[in-house]
Specification:
Elements: H1 2-15, E1 64-65, E2 104-105, E3 110-113, E4 117-121, E5 124-127, E6 131-135, E7 140-144, E8 155-159, E9 163-168, E10 173-178, E11 183-192, E12 194-197, E13 202-207, E14 214-219, E15 224-229, E16 235-237, E17 241-244, E18 247-255, H2 261-270, E19 273-281, E20 287-296, E21 301-304, H3 306-311, E22 320-327, E23 334-338, E24 341-345, H4 364-376, H5 388-407, H6 414-430, E25 438-441, E26 446-449, H7 468-485, H8 487-492, H9 494-505, E27 521-522, E28 527-528, E29 541-542, H10 545-562, H11 565-586, H12 597-602, E30 608-610, E31 613-615, H13 626-632, H14 641-644, H15 648-658, H16 669-679, H17 684-692, H18 703-711, H19 727-732
Parallel strand pairs: 1-25
Antiparallel strand pairs: 2-3, 3-4, 4-7, 5-6, 6-31, 7-12, 8-9, 9-10, 10-11, 11-18, 12-17, 13-14, 14-15, 15-18, 16-17, 19-20, 20-24, 21-23, 22-23, 25-26, 27-28, 29-30, 30-31
């Protein structure tokens, strides 16, 4: 069998690939120490600082391109920001696309800017069995009451991990939009008469103190709003509008979430301290610290979503949770937290090359038999796709075979896999791949593809920054494995490898970097977005959490391959956070209380999760195709998948909910394989028989991988399998 394999491989490799274009010239580091990533403080470092010139340099930047499909950032970003890499999957992305007037969700308010005003909504939730979303109504619209004609756009003057400052020059208004703030805070930069209008009727309006700095108004929809001013302000009102005399200073408005007078007292108490920006700091692995810049006096009040509350570790040490102050949200109740900084700590995850539990004795022969056949089928010359996504999946699929070969102690096939990986990865790194390749876009600051730079729909929108972590994650997995089994190759292509990683994992801010900070990862929600530079009515979105997990896990593996503890730490931390978020918001457990009862009853997994919506449908499949909904949250199957699906009770619920869908005519064999893989977590024998009968596999999966998965279930004590209780902690603490 192996002779046959070697013969086929030899023929394929001696025939070679098609003629390649002239490759990029790779800069050579003068020494290994120079190729190490630059350090950053106070966060643990990831290689991110890259010069943005056309000269030959190290670290590596792919050739620059002038894309003809990207929007113009200067329409909405202030001039001082345009020399920096700009965010492409941010919580305020709609504000800088097209007219900039589509709402974004800031917890607890939906915010909608225009060139003259800003509207906010405390949204109502609408839910059924197919979807749940928050409806925008203009509860308050804030503007200059004198200005009637507006010619300039609003501007983003600054942004941070947890906030954005939006200015409306024509109205003399500057909004400090901080995520999780129960107050919307804005400054009036010079004496200006204000208008605060509503679509509702104002039933009552009163000043709550003689100083004319606090006002209360009630609407006919049942809402009560509080307004606080930094200095006395004279207000008048009609049926649906509040106006002021010229005012200069700071104003804060907040919805009263209930009728309890204690909530009024809480908002009064914390109205004098307001945040203007907020950052998330990675000072140690598996930990994120929120720090806000604040003004005024007193303590800071911010709202925490359910995952914050689950991970918050410094309660009692300067942080107090106010259980009685709650706002409704599509992400679950938002609860008041008092403190100038929060520390969030995650479970540690097992970032390993091989299975966490180990393969059961007696199963090696079956895996090796499938392995030999799957390696025999590798043929780089036969790849017909030039899509960065599907090509990346093929690369990662082959890389899995090399690691499984290591684990089952069958190294004979590794040379064939190594050669296949070299032939498939190198053309993308050196620029010799026919039909596509990686380029650098200097307008927004990031990697695009050749196809994507001319066609916004090519490569699933990669050229407009959609799905970057998905595509690049697959390539990083292949690169990590190849660098592990061929260190000399790894050293040669290390600059390109780090450039791909830095596109979505940069920690740097500002012009000293070639890439925006954590392109896809949302540091308030603690998971990734995949939407890119497309305006969406419901904000950013993400479909596959497992492919997001794969991206950060693969980066951590690349850190292991290159002996880079900082990259291992950052990749592992983001992996852990992505898993926590997936388990919180994508995995819908029976009897759960995150979503409305009707949606929870009919769904075990979210299809596409939007900032402002939860949809049971997928981009490529209707809700009824439950096997696709399960599969897209599992693929690719890796050792880390065990951590993502560590709740065995939920896995059983999910599989039993999905199995009836497999009776539908036309269900793909590849999707069945994912269902059976999860079934193997609690019923390995039944799952094994079903997997053996499959006639096909997903293009990123193999029979070898499925057998490896099934035969590595249940070989270890469950209580020490997922990083919640490490072996070191068990023995040494």
């Amino acid at each position: 069998m192996l002779k046959k394999l070697r013969g086929k491989v030899s023929i394929a490799f001696t025939q070679g690939l098609k003629k390649r274009p002239k490759p990029y010239k790779t800069p050579k580091p003068e020494s290994e120490s120079q190729s190490q990533p630059p350090s950053q403080s106070p966060e643990f470092s990831v290689p991110t600082t890259m010069p943005r010139t056309n000269k030959q340099r190290f670290p590596f930047i792919f050739p620059e391109t002038d894309s003809n499909v990207l929007p113009e950032p200067s329409n909405f970003f202030s001039q001082n920001l345009l020399s920096n890499p700009l965010p492409t999957n941010s919580f305020f992305q709609n504000f800088v696309l097209k007219n900039g007037d589509v709402p974004e969700y800031f917890h607890p308010y939906l915010i909608k800017p225009s060139n003259s005003s800003l509207s906010l909504s405390y949204p109502s939730q609408i839910s059924n069995t197919a979807f749940t979303y928050q409806a925008f109504n203009s509860d308050l619209t804030i503007t200059n009451s004198n200005e009637k004609t507006f010619h300039s756009n609003h501007k983003i003057s600054s942004y941070s991990d947890l906030s954005v400052t939006l200015e409306i020059p024509s109205s003399n208004l500057r909004f400090f939009l901080v995520r999780g703030s129960p107050f919307v805070t804005f400054s009036v930069t010079q004496p200006t008469p204000l208008s605060i209008s509503t679509i509702h009727a104002i039933l009552s309006f009163s000043s709550s103190n003689e100083s004319q700095t606090k006002f209360t108004f009630q609407f006919n929809n049942g809402q009560t709003w509080l307004l606080y001013a930094s200095s006395p302000i004279r207000l008048n009102h009609t049926l649906s509008e509040i106006t002021s005399d010229p005012f200069c200073g700071v104003i804060r408005v907040a919805l009263l979430p209930g009728s309890d007078s204690r909530q009024v007292a809480v908002l009064d108490r914390f109205s004098s301290c307001y945040p203007v920006s907020g950052d998330a700091v990675f000072s140690k692995p598996y930990s994120v610290e929120y720090k806000w810049e604040k003004k005024g006096w007193g303590d800071l009040l911010i709202l925490a979503h359910p995952l914050h509350l689950q991970l918050l570790s410094n309660v009692g040490s300067g942080v107090v949770v106010l259980e009685d102050l709650k706002y409704k949200s599509i992400d679950g109740d938002l609860v008041g937290v008092v403190g100038d900084s929060w520390i969030l700590e995650t479970n540690h995850v097992s970032v390993t090359w091989h299975s966490i539990r180990g393969i059961r004795d007696g199963s090696y022969d079956e895996i090796v038999s499938a392995l030999v056949r799957d390696v025999e089928g590798l043929n780089s010359a036969g790849i017909s796709t030039n899509s960065s996504y599907f090509y990346g999946k093929l690369v990662a699929r082959a890389a899995r075979l090399a690691l499984i070969a290591e684990e089952v102690c069958f190294p004979d096939v590794i040379p064939a896999v190594r050669k296949y990986l070299k032939e498939t990865i190198e053309p993308w790194l050196d620029g010799s791949f026919n039909g596509n390749g990686f380029l650098y876009d200097k307008k927004w600051g990031g990697i695009v593809t050749k196809q994507g730079s001319n066609d916004s729909g090519a490569d699933f929108g990669f050229g407009i920054y959609n799905d970057h972590h998905y595509h690049l994650g697959y390539f990083l997995y292949g690169i990590a494995v190849l660098a592990k089994i061929d260190p000399a190759w790894g050293r040669k292509y290390k600059p390109q490898a780090y450039s791909l990683m830095a596109d979505f994992m940069t920690l740097s801010r500002g012009s000293n970097s070639s890439f925006t900070r954590l392109r896809c990862f949302d540091l308030y929600k603690l998971h990734s977005w995949a939407g890119g530079l497309t305006e969406f009515a419901d904000g950013r979105n993400q479909e596959s959490t497992s492919e997001a997990v794969n991206a950060y896990y693969s980066a951590a593996l690349m850190g292991l391959a290159y002996g880079d503890p900082h990259l291992v730490a950052m990749g592992s931390t983001l992996t852990a956070l992505e898993i926590h978020a997936a388990q919180m918001w994508w995995q819908v457990k029976e009897g759960g209380n995150v979503y409305e009862e009707d949606f929870t009853r009919e769904n075990r997994v979210v299809g596409v999760l939007w900032a402002n919506k939860r949809d049971s449908a997928l981009w490529f499949a209707p809700p009824e195709w439950r096997e696709c909904r399960l599969g897209i949250q599992l693929l690719p199957i890796l050792p880390i998948s065990e951590v993502l699906f560590s709740d065995v009770d939920f896995v059983r619920q999910l599989v039993e909910w999905t199995l009836p869908a497999l009776n539908r005519e036309g269900v793909g064999e590849g999707w069945k394989g994912f269902v059976y893989a999860l079934q193997g977590i609690y019923d390995s024998e039944s799952a094994l028989q079903k997997i053996r009968s499959l006639n096909g596999f997903d293009d990123g999966n193999t029979l070898t991988n499925l057998l490896w998965w099934i035969h590595s279930r249940g070989a270890e004590d469950d209580s020490f399998a997922h990083g919640k209780h490490s072996w070191f902690g068990h023995y040494c603490h």
